[in-house]
Specification:
The protein contains 3 helices and 5 strands, in the order E-H-H-E-E-E-E-H. The chain is of the alpha+beta class and 133 residues long. It has a 5-stranded antiparallel beta sheet with strand order 1-3-4-5-2. The model has no long low-confidence stretch (mean pLDDT 94).
Length: 133
């Protein structure tokens, strides 16, 4: 199952040429990951409060394929590639209509309150794993 978030490119997202500044793609995919987790019924504030667990980006492999421009309407697609005890690997892509502009493989890790790797609670891991089915 893939999650889709629509994002409009605003002037603040662009450089002087009206092209989306490269670092803003990372913001777009971060926003989409947050909404993906929300659609799974996972409250990240409660998860942190109850178990001390937070998600952190460990690694990103990113490919910038074509520029987005001011006022473009973009789709950010997020899909689960793999879930492990303390790690999630996601595929994310930013598209304008059917054209892929940016794609990334994002590795997230779960950290405890002390910043050490921590296993996801079993119920949350199962909820996430079900999205790949």
């Amino acid at each position: 199952m893939s999650h889709r978030l629509q994002i409009r490119v605003y002037y603040e997202d662009t450089d002087l040429a009206g092209i989306v500044y490269y670092a803003n793609y990372l913001k777009f995919i971060e926003r989409a990951r947050t909404e993906w987790v929300r659609t799974l019924g996972i409250d990240q504030v409660r998860l942190k409060a109850e178990s001390g667990i937070v998600f952190a980006v460990r690694r990103i492999e990113a490919d910038y394929l074509s520029p987005a421009h001011f006022d473009d309407l973009l789709d950010v697609n997020t899909s689960l590639r793999e879930v492990r005890g303390a790690r999630l690997i996601l595929d994310q892509a930013v598209l304008r209509r059917d054209a892929v502009l940016f794609q990334a493989v994002v590795t997230l890790v779960c950290l405890d309150a002390q910043g050490r790797a921590a296993r996801l609670p079993a119920d949350i891991r199962q909820r996430i794993a079900e999205t790949a089915a």
